[in-house]
Specification:
Elements: E1 2-4, E2 25-27, E3 38-41, E4 45-51, E5 62-64, H1 68-74, E6 82-83
Length: about 80
């Protein structure tokens, strides 16, 4: 997983499904995790698969954060993603 924020120059504030980008919104490859799927990620919490990204292919996800500083502190790390019913 990597981290993203809409709190940067040139970043969009809306996701692929029209929600505001930020905490609790995860960018996914919709061929792997369908948009709109509810997720649980230990260390991050409950989330919604609500966005896509050019570099988000296969089992990669991008976790939304509210600020650039939070995103940088998270960085890049392996996570387990649970798809909820």
């Amino acid at each position: 997983a990597t981290a993203y924020t809409a709190d940067c120059y040139g970043c969009r504030g809306r996701t692929a499904i029209g929600l505001p980008a930020g905490p609790g919104i995860v960018a996914v490859d919709p061929r792997v995790i369908p948009l709109g799927t509810h997720l649980y990620i230990p260390g991050y919490g409950f989330a919604l698969a609500g966005d896509t990204g050019g570099d988000i292919v296969g089992d990669r996800v991008d976790l939304g954060f509210s600020s650039y500083g939070e995103a940088v502190r998270f960085g890049r790390r392996e996570v387990t993603v649970y798809m909820l019913k």
